[in-house]
Amino acid sequence: MFEKVLIANRGEIALRIHRACREMGIKTVAIHSTVDADAMHVRLADESVCIGPPAAQHSYLNIPAIISAAEITGADAIHPGYGFLSENARFASIVEEHGIAFIGPKPEHIRAMGDKVVAKATMKKLGVPVTPGSDGPVSDSFTARREAERIGYPVLIKAAAGGGGRGMRVARAVSELDSALAQARAEAGGAFGDDTVYLEKYLDRPRHIEIQILADSHGAVVHLGERDCSLQRRHQKILEESPSPGLNAGDRAKICGRVVEAIRQFGYRGVGTVEMLYQDGQFYFIEMNTRLQVEHPVTEAVTGIDLVREQLRVAAGETLGYRQEDIAFQGHAIECRVNAENPETFAPAPGRIAEFHAPGGLGVRMDSGLYSGYRVPPNYDSLIAKLIVHGRTRNECLMRLKRALEETVIGGVLTTIPLHQAVIADPGFIDGAYDIRWLESFVARRRDGG
Ligand code: ADP
User: Fold this and answer.
1) Spatial separation of the C-alpha atoms in residues 89 and 179, rounded to whole Å
2) Number of separate domains in the chain
3) Residue 349 within a domain
4) Which domain does 171 fall in, by range?
5) Most buried pick, 52, 122, 195, 226, via CB within 10 A?
6) pLDDT tens readout for residues 49-68
7) Span from the CA of 45 to the centroid of ligand 1 (angstroms)
8) Judgement on whether residues 368 and 247 belong to the same structural domain of the protein
9) 239, 286, 291, 437: which to mutate for ligand 1, most atoms within 8 A of CB?
10) Above 80 in pLDDT, residue 125?
11) How much distance in Å is there from the Cα of 225 to the middle of ligand 1?
12) The pLDDT of residue 163
C-alpha cells in the first residue's frame, strides 16, 4: 500500500480523500492555492504545499507545480478527486512517468471515455445500448441537416469534449439547426478548447440513471447498483438517490449485467460511472466518468463500501477480494448538494461563514470543509457541503432528510438548503415519478409564486 498520497484537489472531496487515507494509515499531502491556505483539508493533512494563485489554471490545473509538490514531499501516489485534472489523460501519464501512482484508470481508458464520440462507439461495440445519434462528429451545416433528418427532430447538439452540461443545444426543427450548431460549437470551443460536436436524439422525458462500477487490475469487475440523478438544473445534478424510485428489479439486473460485462471487456481499472438515460423501459448510454463522482456517498450508504478506500486498494494492485454476490444493498439513500448560491436565482453567493453546525444522528453524514469563520472563495465551484441521509425505506430516508436539513446551520452566506426543503416536501418528488425536466419546472413554478 502507498505510504503518502498527494491530494490534487480542494474542498469537501480533498477532505473525503484525506479521511480514507487516514483510516488506512496513509500520510497525506494537501496542495492549495493562496486563497485556500486556511481550508480544512490543508489543516488536517500531514503536509501541505502552496502551488499557486487562486486562478485554477495556475494552481489546481498546474501540472508542473503539482508534480513538483509530489516530488518534494516524497508522495508515492496522487489522488485527483473529481473535476480539475481527474479526467486528464495527459496528467495521468505524466504522473506515472514520474514513478508516482495515479489513483485512477489507465491513461488510455481516460482518453477513450473523454471523447464522447469515441466513448459511445466503444460502448456500442461492447454491447451497451447508446442514444441514437450521428455516429461521429458533425462540423458543417449540410452534415448536420442530413444527420438530424435521419435521427428525427428534436435533436441535441453536444460537445465531444463535454462536461458540466456546457456546449449543449437543442434544435426542435431544421430552422433552429444552424444557430444551435453555431452556439454549441462556440460554447464548446470556449469551454474545452475543442469545438467538436455531435448530434443525439433529444429524449423528452428520460430519467438520468447511472451505474457505479468498480474494477481491479486483475479482471474482477462488480457493480454497486445505480444512482438516480434526474434532479438537475441546467444539466447539473442537485440531488441524487439510490435505489432509483423509477427502476424495476428486472431492468436493473439487465442493465447492471450488461455494463459489468462491457467494463470487463474494456479492461478497465478503478471506479467508474456509466451514465445512462432511461425512458419507456429503454436505457441509452450517454457517457462514462472515469473518476470518483460527487454523488458517490449515496452508493457508500446503501452498500457500506468505502469507494475511496477501494480506489486506493486497486491502484496499489490489490484484488477486490469479493464477488458480486457478496455485495448487499440495504435501504435507501439521498444526497443533497448544498451550494453557496441564492436558492431562487442560483447566483453564486461566496462569503464568510458566520456560523456552522452540521446535522447528526443515525444515518446522517455531512461531507464539508466548512467551519465558522471560513471564507468561501469566489474562485471555484459553489458546492460547499453534501448532506447524505440513509434510511431503511425511502420514506424513512425522506423524513430523516427533512429533519437533518432543519438542523443544519450555515450562517453568513445564502445556500440552496431552502430549495432542497421545498423539493422534498413536494408531492411530485415524494411519489418518485420525476424525470430530468421536473426540477426546472418546479423552480419556474416557485418563481412564479405557484
Ligand atoms: P455533461 O458531460 O456535460 O454532463 P452528459 O452527456 O452527461 O453531459 O449529459 C448531461 C445531462 O444532459 C443529462 O443528465 C441529461 O439531463 C441531459 N442530456 C444529455 N443527453 C441528452 C439527450 N440525448 N436527450 C435529453 N437530455 C439529454
Assistant:
1) 32
2) 3
3) yes
4) 132-201
5) 226
6) 999 999 999 999 999 999 99
7) 36
8) yes
9) 286
10) yes
11) 20
12) 85
Tell me, yes or no, if 291 is annotated catalytic. yes
Residue 384 lies in a domain: yes
pLDDT at 450 > cutoff 70: no
CA atoms within 13 A on the CB side of 294: 26
How would residue 17 be classed by pLDDT, with cut points 50, 70 and 90?
very high
**What percentage of the chain carries pLDDT values higher than 70?**
100
Q: Name the catalytic one among 291, 337, 365, 400.
A: 291
pLDDT at 419 over 80: yes
Nearest CA to ligand 1 atom 21: 202
Please give the distance, rounded to the nearest whole angstrom, from the Cα atom of residue 316 to the centre of ligand 1. Answer: 33
Burial pattern 339-355, b for ≥16 Cβ within 10 A else e, equals bbbbbeebebbbeebee
> Ligand 1: distance of its center to the CA of 421 in Å?
25
Q: Quick one: pLDDT at residue 449?
A: 80
For residue range 77-109, what is the model confidence (pLDDT) as tens digits?
999 999 999 999 999 999 999 999 999 999 999
Q: Same domain, yes or no, for 293 and 339?
A: yes
Q: What's phi and psi for 410, nearest 5 deg?
A: -130, 100
Mutate to test the pocket of ligand 1, among 147, 168, 169, 437 (most ligand atoms within 8 A of CB): 168
Neighbours of 228 (CB within 10 A): 24
Contact yes or no for 386/294 (Cβ under 8 A): yes
Strands 77-79 and 47-52: unpaired
Other CB atoms within a 10 A radius of the CB of residue 265 amount to 13
Sign of CA dihedral 307, 313, 317, 318: negative
**167, 201, 235 — which closes off a domain?**
201
Grid look-up 462507439 returns 121
**108 inside domain:** no
257 lines ligand 1 (CB under 6 A): no
